[in-house]
């Protein structure tokens, strides 16, 4: 047990690979998976005499991001050279932005799981986002006793997004990373593919006794490429730092790597052997000037942002903040939901939300399918929701119908649910006489339960309802069964 | 024919009194005879030259020739040439054949110019004497015990020795104007951004600018017209319409206001240079120009500012020469760091190492503001001085170099003395202005003296026009060194 109450401080630096056609300073393709060095042109190899030319598409994506987070798109920003030697850094410097980045400020609102099944709101402020080029890759395994260099990735455009040290737990860090991941895909600047390295997180972690104003000394965990690793690495690192301090040690500023196999973090280099990157403005590139016209054009082309849409879902459809956030986790999900509501009517918006996030999400998850590949279309789901709303089927039967829809049993049409209900005779029984007949049968066959109920066992009532539903093959309207049964048992 | 003006050579080509192949053959023969004396060339491309000459003859026959079609010329070895060795005067690139052409090289190829070879230079364009070449010093054709200037000394010597009529060069702190002056030919560095730097191996990116050497301002105008123009591959290339620099040569000098910076005429200039410069200015007055004293109070800060900015950029620009992908790699090494250290220690010469060290130092954490930022402020002040001066005059005249060509080895052990030989040229690069040097007479030892003309931005045509008018009235530019 800790004697001190420790507060955790986390800031993230996230590298998002921008989904341009070509590299940030050359015309070579950035498509993933080509033969080594097949996508490295003279500029990427840094032949003598070559010069960088800025890809406007990368700038446009940075503007989109700046607007999406409510940050300031700098009217003038500067590309700088970050100098260090490494075999997969062909020029001996990386072109990045240092003193004047393209985006300043901005913020993201999150819902963080509270660990008790609920969620709380959290605001994370962003420091900046800047454009830079990626390095190549060193291939240490493929060549015995030698290192291979693949420069396909060299020059790939990145937007490095730096947060303020606003997060206080790994859960908050993961929620932030997920929100950012969703946002960059939403505004279509990054494919978000974490396996291919399109979205990589560095976490700056420190601890301090709660109430202390100054930050503790931080260590930076590099290159976390999954949300699970992000969580594991931060949790390990927090405990490591607390243990160290409580054992009388002092945290030294360092860069550390996370080993997913052991679940541990390990120091890569300390502050003492940190590079002096000798940043200075790149004389090969003019200052990046972004006109207000350009910004306004990009603003006009932005899709409705998740925060705005989520607020609309809460306001217009009466959804909870959690549901609204979940339905705006991706543009595809939001669109599916909007299409479902459009077909089912606003009055059924809540039922639509329950189905999209409940049954559909669970089935998609199990089948590892994206919502855009859902075998049940939005129109079909809406058809199902309408039959629930007009009492044609009960919720229990609806799950059966959904299963049939998932298996394409009702065909591809929007009215597939109706076809299934019809074909399988699933229509709900609401005729009082028919239900009463069933109840009478059940009561006659279950005298024991009737007596137990009369003796005060509430549970016996539920058993009788269940028997009635069973006897009706689930088709009896449960509310009516309840009501009539109560009357009969009077 | 090689020692004639481009106009005359072009006319002869069209009159079929000479063919491009004959010109190339003549130039190659002159190189064979003269180059051992001056060491102006690192690479001679005989086969390439003859093939280009044949193509030029075909164009001439087809009537699709331009003003440079069939003209033999040389490129400074700082320009990348596809399939031809491109060394930059360094052991680091002694084995490097470029897989692509520099923008300037492709423009001149397209114009039908016939490249006969690549000229010697100070390693990575760092130097003022051409002594810093891995391929041995170039010698001044006027006196082979003296330097030709640098860093484009090979190109200047090649033209002065009449091995080729025109050549390209680059000028970062005076590297075209100073060798032009010391070798008695004309050389122009245009406004920064006029000539694409794509394929021009970078020394100091914010200062480097390609330019032209020729016997006369007229020849330089023809060459520069073919080299200049916007190139989307160079982000610092100016988006301006191509200009015919030869179009404005006949404008009389009457009414031209020539500014004489008092700081250039204070102490420092040797007497023989002063005499020639004064006489040339008197000639301009005779031709109708008026002179006015102007002041460039911050010009004295140009050398210290330059020796912060240029090495800073160089230290970064030269990082790509790491032995990993091309260029020199040490034969033996123990690990990655050892490979870097040995390859670079072996591949770079002393002056290059000195500038990499200086540049690394001034960019280091804690020194950056005191050196680099301060130097950039000086740069702004120097540029402002010129703008104030140009409120009073159309162009500025002065010396190029404080002395005539100095002896080989004379300043090699004293880098600061060597740096001071660029005292009149460096401020122009910091301001990004166009400037030229044209022959203005002779000084001690019968060695040439040049006059520098500095123009305002985009003032190339005006500079070349003034120099052409001077050359119509004088014959300094027609003087040739003995034995060539």
Task: Explain what the structure shows.
Chain A is of the alpha+beta class and 490 residues long. Chain A folds into three domains: 6-294, no CATH class; 304-424, no CATH class; 432-489, Arc Repressor Mutant, subunit A (Orthogonal Bundle). Chain A contains 16 helices and 17 strands. Chain A has helices at 42-45, 56-68, 170-186, 227-246, 292-301, 306-317, 321-327, 331-344, 349-367, 378-389, 395-406, 416-424, 432-445, 447-454, 458-471, 478-489; strands spanning 6-17, 72-73, 76-77, 79-83, 93-97, 103-104, 107-113, 119-133, 137-139, 148-150, 157-163, 199-209, 219-224, 254-259, 264-270, 280-281, 288-289. In chain A, strands 1, 2, 6, 7, 8, 11, 12, 13, 14 and 15 form a ten-stranded mixed β-sheet that branches. A three-stranded antiparallel β-sheet of chain A has the order 5-4-16, with no helix packed on it. Chain A has a two-stranded antiparallel sheet with strand order 3-17. In chain A, β13 (219-224), α4 (227-246) and β14 form a beta-alpha-beta unit. Chain A is elongated and about 95 Å long. Chain A starts with 5 loop residues before the first strand and ends with a helix. Chain B has 484 residues and is of the alpha/beta class. Chain B has one domain (1-484): Amidase signature (AS) domain (Amidase signature (AS) enzymes), CATH 3.90.1300.10. In chain B, strands 1-3-2-4-6-5-10-11-9-7-8 form an eleven-stranded mixed β-sheet, sandwiched between helices. In chain B, β7 (257-261), α8 and β8 form a beta-alpha-beta unit. The radius of gyration of chain B is 21 Å and the shape is globular. The relative contact order of chain B is 0.14. The mean pLDDT of chain B is 96. The A-B interface holds A 42, 45-54, 81, 83, 85, 87, 90-93, 147, 149, 276, 278-280, 283-286 and B 79-80, 86, 88, 93, 96, 98-100, 102, 197-202, 204-206, 232-236, 312-313, 315-316, 318-322, 324-326, 336, 340, 360, 363-365, 368, 372.
């Amino acid at each position: 047990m800790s004697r001190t109450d420790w507060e955790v401080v986390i800031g993230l630096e996230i590298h998002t690979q921008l989904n341009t056609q070509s590299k940030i300073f050359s015309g070579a393709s950035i498509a993933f998976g080509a033969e080594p060095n097949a996508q490295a042109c003279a500029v990427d190899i840094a032949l003598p005499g070559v010069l960088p030319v800025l890809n406007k598409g990368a700038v446009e994506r940075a503007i989109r991001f700046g607007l999406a987070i409510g940050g300031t798109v700098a009217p003038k920003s500067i590309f700088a050279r970050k100098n260090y030697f490494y075999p997969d850094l062909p020029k001996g410097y990386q072109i990045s932005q240092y003193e004047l980045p393209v985006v300043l400020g901005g913020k993201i609102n999150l819902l963080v799981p509270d660990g008790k099944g609920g969620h709380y709101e959290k605001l994370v402020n962003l420091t900046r986002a800047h454009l830079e080029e990626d390095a190549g890759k060193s291939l240490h395994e493929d060549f015995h006793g030698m290192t291979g260099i693949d420069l396909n990735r060299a020059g790939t455009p990145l937007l490095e997004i730096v947060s303020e040290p606003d997060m206080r737990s790994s859960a908050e860090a993961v929620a932030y990373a997920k929100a950012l991941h969703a946002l960059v895909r939403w505004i279509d600047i990054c494919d978000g593919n974490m396996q291919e390295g399109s979205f990589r997180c560095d976490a700056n972690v420190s601890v301090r006794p709660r109430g202390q104003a100054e930050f503790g000394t931080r260590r930076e965990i590099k290159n976390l490429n999954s949300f699970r690793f992000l969580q594991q690495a931060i949790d390990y690192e927090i405990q490591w730092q607390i243990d160290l301090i409580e054992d009388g040690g002092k945290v030294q500023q360092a860069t550390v790597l996370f080993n997913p196999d052991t679940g541990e973090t390990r120091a890569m280099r300390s502050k003492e052997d940190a590079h002096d990157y000798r940043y200075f403005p790149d004389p090969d590139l003019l200052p990046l000037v972004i006109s207000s016209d350009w910004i306004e054009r990009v603003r006009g082309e932005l899709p409705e942002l998740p925060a705005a849409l989520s607020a609309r879902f809460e306001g217009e459809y009466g959804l909870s903040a959690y549901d609204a956030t979940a339905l705006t986790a991706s543009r595809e999900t939001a669109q599916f939901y909007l299409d479902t509501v459009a077909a089912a009517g606003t009055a059924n918006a809540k039922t639509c939300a329950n189905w999209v996030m409940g049954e559909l999400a669970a089935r998609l998850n199990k089948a590892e399918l994206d919502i855009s590949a859902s075998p049940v279309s939005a129109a079909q789901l809406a058809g199902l929701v309408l039959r629930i709303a007009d009492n044609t089927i009960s919720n229990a039967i609806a799950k059966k119908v959904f299963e049939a829809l998932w298996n394409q049993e009702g065909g591809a049409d929007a009215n597939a649910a109706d076809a299934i209900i019809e074909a399988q005779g699933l229509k709900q029984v609401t005729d009082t006489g028919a239900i009463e007949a069933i109840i009478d049968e059940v009561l006659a066959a279950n005298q024991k339960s009737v007596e137990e109920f009369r003796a005060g066992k509430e549970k016996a009532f539920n058993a009788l309802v269940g028997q009635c539903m069973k006897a009706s093959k689930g088709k009896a309207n449960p509310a009516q069964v309840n009501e009539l049964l109560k009357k009969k048992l009077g | 024919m090689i020692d004639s003006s481009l106009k005359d050579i072009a006319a002869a080509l069209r009159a079929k009194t000479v063919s491009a192949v004959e010109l190339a053959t003549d130039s190659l023969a002159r190189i064979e005879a003269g180059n051992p004396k001056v060491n102006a060339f690192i690479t001679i491309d005989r086969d390439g030259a003859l093939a280009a000459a044949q193509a030029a003859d075909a164009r001439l026959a087809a009537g699709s020739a331009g003003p440079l079609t069939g003209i033999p010329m040389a490129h400074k070895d700082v320009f990348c040439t596809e399939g031809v060795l491109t060394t930059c005067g360094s052991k680091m690139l002694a084995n490097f054949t470029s897989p692509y052409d520099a923008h300037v090289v492709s423009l001149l190829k397209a114009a039908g110019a016939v490249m006969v070879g690549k000229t010697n230079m100070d390693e990575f364009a760092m130097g003022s004497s051409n002594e810093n070449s891995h391929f041995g010093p170039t010698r001044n054709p006027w006196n082979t015990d003296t330097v030709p200037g640098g860093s484009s000394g090979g190109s200047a010597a090649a033209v002065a020795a009449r091995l080729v009529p025109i050549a390209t060069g680059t000028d970062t702190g005076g590297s075209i104007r100073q060798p032009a002056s010391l070798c008695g030919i004309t050389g122009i560095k245009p406004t920064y951004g006029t000539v694409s730097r794509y394929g021009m191996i970078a020394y100091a990116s914010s200062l480097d600018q390609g330019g032209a050497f020729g016997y006369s301002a007229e020849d330089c105008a023809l060459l520069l017209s073919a080299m200049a123009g916007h190139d989307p591959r160079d982000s610092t290339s100016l988006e301006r319409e191509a200009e015919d620099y030869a179009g404005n040569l006949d404008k009389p000098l009457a009414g031209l206001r020539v500014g004489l910076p008092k700081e250039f005429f204070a102490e420092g200039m040797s007497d023989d240079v002063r005499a020639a410069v004064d006489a040339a200015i008197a000639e301009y007055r005779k031709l109708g120009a008026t002179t006015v004293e102007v002041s460039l109070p911050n010009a004295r800060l140009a050398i210290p500012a330059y020796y912060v900015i240029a090495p800073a950029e160089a230290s970064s620009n030269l990082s790509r020469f790491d032995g990993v992908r091309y260029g020199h790699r040490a034969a033996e090494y123990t690990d990655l760091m050892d490979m870097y250290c040995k390859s670079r220690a072996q591949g770079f010469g002393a002056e290059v190492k000195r500038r990499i060290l200086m540049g690394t130092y001034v960019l280091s954490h804690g020194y950056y503001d005191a050196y680099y930022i301060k130097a950039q402020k000086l740069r702004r002040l120097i540029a402002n001085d010129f703008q104030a001066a140009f409120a009073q005059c159309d162009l500025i005249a002065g010396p190029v170099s404080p002395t005539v060509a100095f002896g080989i080895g004379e300043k090699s052990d004293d880098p600061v003395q060597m740096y001071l030989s660029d005292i009149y040229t460096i401020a122009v690069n910091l301001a990004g202005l166009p400037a030229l040097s044209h022959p203005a007479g002779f000084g001690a030892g019968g060695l040439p003296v040049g006059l520098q003309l500095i123009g305002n931005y985009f003032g190339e045509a005006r500079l070349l026009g003034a120099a052409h008018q001077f050359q119509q009235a004088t014959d300094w530019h027609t003087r040739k060194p003995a034995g060539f």
